[in-house]
Amino acid sequence: MNYRSLGRSGLKVPELCYGTGTFGGTNEFFKSWGATQDAEARTLIDICMEAGCNFFDTADIYSDGHSETVLGKAIAHLKRTDVLISTKATFRSGKGPNDVGSSRYHLTAALEESLKRLNTDYVDVYHLHAFDATTPVEETLNTLDKMVREGKVRYIACSNFSGWQLMKSLSVSERYGWARYVGHQVYYSLVGREYEWELMPLALDQGVGALVWSPLGWGRLTGKIRRGQPLPENSRLQNKMVVDAGPTPDWEYVYKVVDALDEVAKETGKTVPQIALNWLLQRPTVSTLVIGARNEAQLRANLAASGWSLTAEQVEKLDAASAVPLAYPYWHQVQFDERNPFPVKQVHGA
């Protein structure tokens, strides 16, 4: 397993991170992802550790906190300093008016509850799961800085921010000398490349590493989705609630990308999801991919996406198949590449 710096920080993380949203399965939404319980979770964690994947991602809302509880038990036999834990807060965790958001009140309570469920004194990376426009940015970042100074959090990161929200936050941290976001957990895949338009150039400029969630396009790049065939019975895409909560690319576009993945898979002897993951590992700013797995076979297959590289020609083939028309102002900017180059090639009028 290769290791990379998390953004402009000294923290080294494996290029694959195991996402434990499949742990717990205590409500309809997350049960469609998976329902891994204690014994199986420990087995999966040990497989990751054996492969050098020692970074585990969860959140306080995953299965109403049960994902954190299962993860805490699954790593209990390991030396705490041998593992890296990432968790998140911001989304609603209770019925009260202050049980949501990124206020000092909610974040302080949320972190304490996460630490109890994980059975640890600190988390290595603490994310804001979303931007809270109702709380002053200064209040949020001062709270996170205090957590770092107290030793309860090692590094802070955000998730699902827009460009201006991230840049404003970084500016506030710089102004007051507070801890700054070193990572941004983002949706990015071969069928979802909008991250490249604004957030990737910002991350490159400001030293913010991308932790990519749903790198297989919300279950569309598993290799089981094919033109003219029904969805697999166990696919999360069978659940309308899950489909409505995620990205909704045009199906013909998805099939076009899968066709290109099939071609490259034949050339390399790798699987479709391994190709899709490896493509992401070659993109600028990417620090780690958050991979999921319902079982041991899926986990081992996804871990095999690391340790090799696609050729430049294969990357170009996948780039071309997944290119989409750009939104404004990017279709205008891309025409003046001499003075405003994008980190990766963009095609105007794709």
CATH superfamily grouping: NADP-dependent oxidoreductase domain
CATH-derived topology: TIM Barrel
Mean pLDDT: 95
Largest sheet, order of strands side by side? Answer: 3-4-5-6-7-8-9-10
Rg of Cα set: 20 Å
What general outline do the C-alpha atoms trace? globular
Oligomer class: single chain
Strand composition percent:
5-15%
- Biggest β-sheet, characterized? 8 strands, parallel, barrel
User: What count of helical segments does DSSP give?
Assistant: 13
What is the C-level CATH assignment? Alpha Beta
| Structural class by SSE content | alpha/beta
Number of domains: 1
Low-confidence stretches: none
Give the strand tally: 10
- N-C termini distance: 35 Å
Please, could you describe this protein's structure?
The protein is of the alpha/beta class. Helices cover 39% and strands 14% of the residues. It contains 13 helices and 10 strands. Helix 2 packs parallel to helix 11. It is globular, with a radius of gyration of 20 Å. The mean pLDDT is 95.
